[in-house]
Design goal:
By secondary structure, this protein is an all-beta fold. The protein is built from no helices and 11 strands. A hairpin with a 6-residue loop joins strand 4 and strand 5.
Length: 128
């Protein structure tokens, strides 16, 4: 059974940092894209950062460029999101996702439909 488990969420003051981790189990995801999405109640889910299978393409939301960094460890079926200089508007539930295949393009990384498997989500709250 495929399972994605996120960790690292929590409460932090504005300007602080958090590191989100996601580990996938149940199969190998080396050929898949991996990404982080977030959602605020009443708003649509949005891509935060995503990375293709070999790290050749990385996509960030404009609102997090220069502050967040995504990286993956294929041997560990994992993906990490390092979040620095956090802002109150970063408050959301963050979801890890994986899907696609070797051909997943830069443009497809932001499409939630590209991802077949999703984690349960982890809450990130940034206080002002």
């Amino acid at each position: 059974q495929v399972q994605l488990v996120e960790s690292g969420g929590g409460l932090v003051q504005a300007g602080g940092s958090l590191r989100l981790s996601c580990t996938a189990s149940g199969r190998t995801f080396r050929a898949y894209a991996m990404g982080w999405f977030r959602q605020v109640p009443g708003h649509e889910r949005e891509v935060v950062a995503a990375i293709t299978w070999n790290g050749g393409n990385i996509r960030y939301a404009d609102s997090v460029k220069g502050r967040f960094t995504i990286s993956r460890g294929n041997a560990e079926n994992s993906v990490v999101l390092q979040m620095n200089s956090l802002k109150p508007q970063d408050t959301a539930v963050y979801y890890c996702a994986t899907g696609g295949d070797y051909s997943t393009s830069y443009w497809a990384l932001s499409n939630g439909d590209e991802y077949n498997y999703w984690g349960q989500g982890t809450q990130v709250t940034v206080s002002s």
